[in-house]
Design goal:
Chain A has 264 residues and is of the alpha/beta class. Chain A has eight helices and eight strands. In chain A, a hairpin with a 4-residue loop joins strand 6 and strand 7. Chain A starts with 24 loop residues before the first helix and ends with a strand. Chain B has a single domain (10-187, 283-400), classed as FAD/NAD(P)-binding domain. The chains are: A alpha/beta (264), B alpha/beta (415).
């Protein structure tokens, strides 16, 4: 078996991993309850739900511009193959599928995959969910037009290897998106002390500050993987109105970006 | 999982609209214009709703609403049925024309238009039949509504089922969906009814609308499009409820002579066209507009006094706001039935509608009486409005439906 490269966000419940394959009905009921929890906009994953529209908008606008698509049509991503790495309960896969993309979501936790599958059946969306790591997809010679690495790179064991593998699955002219946390004093204060200890948005230990990545670092790592970063945008939270917004001048804490694979 | 495509009786749409009236049909066109799949469920056979015997009302369309009609691609179908209103003359008993709104004060557009409801409905249906993204189920009776976390499913009496992400109630003032959802309303009856009919008259109305405040209630004369070369106006005669049966019992010539007492003879000889309809008046406002995968639109959410001719316009503003929040969410790949989207609609519309309900209620209470001090006060009030041009322009813009934070459709932009 391949090594588990990604250590995606774990919650108390998702730590009880189950075996792949057939799932008994009692387990199934448990997953259903957990799927509802994942997908409750006011529930445990509220921060993710709040930030999601901003991420989708960023992806949609940049993909539409790059591939010359009409972002106001309801299915702008028709014909595009999207891979979401660390898909969790499918919070990003479902919007991508609604926008018309052919979506594959992978996660190393089989529980997340079960949850995502249950939910996509209930929303009648056709999405391929797999318990797999990026290495497996590389070894299968899979290619995608868009790779999404949202809130993933700060959790991987070896970011160089990980992004190199990701780059190998990006098709010609394809794009790789990422969002992560900058390694600054401010991010230590806000993302660790604030989000995990004071606001308790995230379980303690979700993030390891030392693994946060500076924009210059990720840009260089991607360059070595033959991906040219096209944009970096800060994501800031306004505690007064509780809204996240894109902010091109403040990349101190959360930021996202995308790059294009070199023409060969 | 159940594979729904195997169920021959199962239809699926992104949005399911209940009610095939002016609001439901307009909303369906607005949503489908963005690419959304819409199902409309209507209780009655829609062929019956386009006869002149079903609905003889004519409706005032504000400029904002006219933009929406343009935005949904209906303008070419209705433009020759719209009678522009270039000026509104508001008067109190015995003192004609002392408040007057002239459209040239706020631009070159007319203040609004008058259209016959049934003609608007006919054009809406015609346009809907051209849309392959709208499926119209009528006549159809709903026997069951099942709401689950991710969808709403309707069961119809004939065995068909409709699965959607969002259920929108456009089933009018007595909305049964509102009732079955358990949404409470604030309501009271006005002790008034309106008699609605149209008249031929000798002299052209010159596209002027008149509203005369009489002790029994407002009396409105609204310019209509000529019919067979004859000048025509719609009359909305509001009077105390107790008086209505005796008015309707009058012989035609006696009724016309009562009409002259109010109407005057400035348009020459009058002749009543077709039937007269009577509507009891009441105020109704839903205490909330939304529920799980559910929203109220138009009269199902609010019904107000017709004194300002704003009923349909409020509903059209609801449509513009709701279709905007829905399509914006959908363009981000979101599930359109989520409460966050629906709350944005409620925040956007409910307060505005409440203000208009209160304002029309107050104007009606102020004007529908004959108490001398109140009359003096209101005459002073109307006179003041006339003196203060900015205030008058603001009131006009509100009546034209172009004030406040406006949805894209009302601003004349595409959705």
């Amino acid at each position: 078996m391949t090594s588990k490269v990604i250590r995606y966000k774990m919650t108390e419940k998702t730590k009880n991993s189950v075996e792949n394959g057939s799932v008994d009905p009692i387990e199934m009921e448990k997953f259903r309850a957990m799927a509802n929890e994942w997908w409750d906009p006011e529930g445990k994953f509220k921060p993710l739900h709040k930030i999601n529209p901003l991420r989708v908008e960023y992806i949609r606008n940049n993909v539409s511009q790059h591939f010359n698509l009409d972002k106001n049509s309801l299915l702008p991503f028709s014909g595009l193959k999207v891979l979401d790495i660390g898909c969790g309960g499918g919070l990003l896969c479902e919007p991508m599928a609604r926008l018309g993309a052919t979506v594959t979501g992978i996660d190393v936790l089989s529980e997340n995959i079960e949850i995502a599958k249950i939910h996509s059946e209930e929303t009648s969306l056709s999405i391929t969910y797999r318990k797999a790591s990026i290495e497996e997809l590389v070894s299968e010679n899979k290619e995608f037009d868009i790779i999404l690495n949202m809130e993933v790179v700060e959790h991987v064991v070896n970011i160089e290897d990980f992004l190199d593998n990701c780059a190998n699955t990006v098709s010609q002219n394809g794009l790789l998106f990422f969002s992560t946390l900058n390694r600054t004093p401010k991010s230590f204060l806000l993302a660790i002390i604030g989000a995990e200890y004071i606001l308790r948005w995230l379980p303690r230990g979700t993030h390891d500050w030392k693994k946060f990545i500076k924009p210059s670092e990720i840009t260089n790592i991607l360059l070595k993987a033959e991906i040219e970063v096209r944009d970096l945008t800060g994501v800031t939270f306004n505690p007064l109105n509780g809204l996240w917004s894109a902010n091109t001048s403040d990349l101190e804490v959360n930021y996202m970006g995308y790059g294009k694979k070199f023409n060969t | 999982m159940l594979n729904n495509s195997l169920d021959k009786n199962m239809e699926s749409a992104e949005v399911c609209i209940v009610g095939g009236g002016l609001i439901g049909l307009t909303l369906a066109l607005a949503l489908s214009s963005t690419g959304l799949e819409v199902a409309i469920v209507e209780r009655v056979d829609l062929q019956d709703t386009i006869s002149s015997e079903f609905d003889g009302r004519a409706t005032a369309i504000s400029n904002g609403s006219a933009q929406v009609i343009k935005g949904i691609g209906l303008w070419n179908l209705v433009s020759d049925q719209l009678s522009p209103i270039n000026d509104i003359r508001v008067s109190d008993k015995n003192s004609l024309f002392f408040l007057h709104y002239d459209h040239t004060e706020v631009g070159n557009e007319p203040l609004g238009y008058i259209i016959e409801n049934r003609l608007l409905r006919l054009s809406l249906l015609k346009k809907i039949k051209e849309q392959n993204r709208i499926s119209l189920l009528a006549p159809a009776k709903i026997t069951e509504i099942n709401k689950s976390p991710n969808k709403v499913q309707l069961k119809l009496a004939d065995g068909r089922k409709i699965k959607s992400q969002l259920l929108l109630a456009c089933d009018g003032k007595n909305s049964s969906l509102r009732e079955s959802t358990g949404i409470p309303v604030t309501s009271w009856n006005y002790n008034q009814s309106s008699i609605v009919f149209s008249v031929f008259h000798e002299i052209s109305h010159d596209n002027l609308a008149h509203e005369l405040f009489l002790p029994g209630g407002p009396f409105a004369i609204l310019p209509m499009v000529d019919l067979n070369g004859r000048h025509r106006s719609a009359v909305v005669w509001t009077d105390s409820k107790s008086l209505i049966p005796s008015l309707l019992a009058l012989k035609e010539e006696e009724f016309i002579s009562e009409l002259y007492k109010r109407f005057g003879d400035f348009l020459g000889k009058l002749e009543i066209v077709g039937s007269k309809w009577t509507y009891p008046l009441s105020l109704l406002h839903a205490q909330r507009y939304i529920d799980h995968r559910f929203a109220l639109v138009g009269d199902a959410a609010h019904s107000i006094h017709p004194i300002a001719g704003q009923g349909l316009n409020m509903g059209i503003r609801d449509i513009a706001a709701l279709s905007e929040v829905i399509v914006d969410a959908r363009r981000l790949g979101a599930d359109i039935g989520l409460s966050e989207t629906l709350s944005a609609y409620e925040r956007w519309r409910r307060f505005d509608n409440l203000v208009l309900a209160v304002v029309t209620d107050t104007i009606n209470k102020l004007f529908s009486n004959d108490i001398p001090p109140v009359r003096t006060a209101r005459r002073f009030g109307l006179g003041t409005i006339n003196e203060v041009a900015p205030l008058r322009r603001a009131l006009m813009r509100h009546a034209m439906g172009t004030m406040g934070e406006l949805p894209r459709l009302i601003r004349g932009e595409s959705l």
